[in-house]
Design a protein that fits this description.
Blueprint: E1 3-8, H1 14-22, E2 31-38, E3 41-48, H2 51-60, E4 67-73, E5 88-90, E6 93-101, H3 104-113, H4 125-138, H5 141-149, E7 154-162, E8 169-174, E9 179-183, E10 186-190, E11 202-205, E12 210-215, E13 218-223, E14 228-229, E15 234-235, H6 240-244, H7 251-257, H8 259-267, E16 271-272, E17 277-278, H9 287-292, E18 295-300, H10 302-319, E19 323-327, H11 328-331, E20 342-348, H12 354-364, E21 369-374, H13 380-384, E22 387-390, H14 403-422, H15 428-449, H16 452-462, E23 467-472, H17 477-491, E24 494-499, E25 516-521, H18 527-539, E26 543-549, E27 561-565, H19 573-592
Parallel strand pairs: 18-19, 18-20, 20-21, 21-22, 23-24, 23-25, 25-26, 26-27
Antiparallel strand pairs: 1-4, 1-10, 2-3, 2-4, 5-6, 6-7, 7-8, 8-12, 9-10, 9-11, 11-15, 12-13, 13-14, 16-17
The structure holds 2-deoxy-2-amino glucitol-6-phosphate.
Length: 609
Amino acid sequence: MCGIVCYAGKAQCSPLIFEALRQLEYRGYDSAGMAVQGPDGVAVVRSQGKLEKLAQALSGHPLPGTVGIGHTRWATHGKPSELNAHPHVVDGIAVVHNGIFENHLELRRDLMSSGAVFSSETDTEILAHLVSRALSTTGSLKEALRAALHEVRGSYAVAVLGRSEPGRVFIAKNASPLVVGLTEGATFAASDVPAILKHTNRMVFLEEGELGVIDESGLSLETLDGQTVRREPKIISWSPVQAEKEGFKHFMLKEIHQQPRVIEDTIRGRVSVETGQVAAEHIGVDETAAKRIRRVVLLGCGTSYHAALVGKYWIEALAQVPAEVELASEYRARKPLVDPNDLIVAVSQSGETVDTLEAVKVARAGSAHILAIANVLDSAIPRAADGALYTHAGPEIGVASTKCFTAQLAALFLLAVFLGRRRGTLGAEKAMELLGGLLEIPALMRIVLGQEEGIAAIAKRYASSKDFLFLGRTLSYPIALEGALKLKEISYIHAEGYPAGEMKHGPIALIDENLPVVVVAPHDESFDRILGNIEEVRARGGKVICLSTVGAPGIDRLCDEKIDLPSSLSELSPLLSVLPLQLLAYHVADFKGTDIDQPRNLAKTVTVE
Ligand code: AGP
């Protein structure tokens, strides 16, 4: 996610803002910049790359002044570059933004038709133009910002300063975090506590739809509709290291809990439940290609491969087109048959995994349409593809992928619905039901995550086990694989995922009282058969940890441990059933004391052979 820092006070602000941006580096970014109200108006310095590049630029162009805003950008619209870096300045008004303006394209067209000249590819720049346009009628920056925010749709944390109102920074929040730090003689604002914790622990957290003004004396706060807001500052007791994790013990746990928001961000602006449609411009596959496709081949490694396995089920069921899933490392090692009517889907959170990149190059030889599903804008795999469908999970710090996995699932689901609607195999009514169900997933995820305490207790009871077996059928089979991968990569306990129907063909020989068997059993059309598998395990003394839909008949008595899943559309169960497995793996590893965020032998991105 992007990082915002603001300062209004008596000290020279450039070094303060720079240091505060450094405290936000953990959020991941690809460019940075700063704007300061100086003797000659608003001066801006920006650079692509890490903060060292910004430091070099600042050494050549110092920014004197005591009021300023700074930004680290995680690119979502417009590739990483100096031109796309924030702040964006229009008519002496500087803007920084964290979030996504969904209606940026239509606003850009409207602004350009009235003469606005854009210098970047970003959605953010529209706000600078809107504020500038409104200022000519409102006369006040606060009212101009209020007017501009009534025109945009989407998530934002914004900070604005202008030459017309020295000494003040205007801030506003909707869905992206913004916190104000109060000190004697100066006021800070930032995307996150770590940026300003060294200066103060007195913090005011903005809430949805609030607009504020900071200056050297403090903060004045109101709603976007003009109602005054009075909010006592909270005293933050975290250490700076704790603050980066927002109080969570590990980045992985923080990222597990970010998933409801990540799904909201990945869906936002891309679906219309009313029409049962998925917006074509976000999918990276055009309408004609969608109709021409005769086969879909999904490629990935590790967790991304598991996401692709789930995608296969959805694409075949909704788009009625054959879908194959290949481990990228295997695919690239042979001479695959690629047809011009194939759709190749490369799934990769980093967009840099060498096996997946090389597999894309092999597929390229067959002149098929190549789509990348990635979390990092403009990374190598999207650049090598014909189109990209980006997840909006923000940077994932923990090596074990969690939020990027469910974001990939959401993106694959959107692709399957899009293909089904464009190919005429998915009716509007069913699509409306599916997309409506998808929009409910974040709330249902929060219910599942609310069971963490019970899941942690289960984890502790089985943390000394030497092996685990994970079972699932159809859509739950890839989730069983993912649960096994999570456990083995962070706790170092051997774990295998298996299709439950394969039990009789070998794995059943493993069953005894020392082998915990985790069964992913949502109440779907495979439920009765998987009850039989649970009986087989119990008959041989195995311990059964069940995940099942709350109220599903006849399963409670069969389980040694039970984790309830809220009811959802059965097609969407993978987005929920993976969460308890992530938490189970996390708490087993935490009990064992392994290095959860940086497990031994693992790299976050495998860019070498
Ligand atoms: C997942 O927890 C692992 N860290 C690993 O399997 C990962 O999914 C794999 O290396 C693929 O990475 P990518 O999504 O960045 O391509």
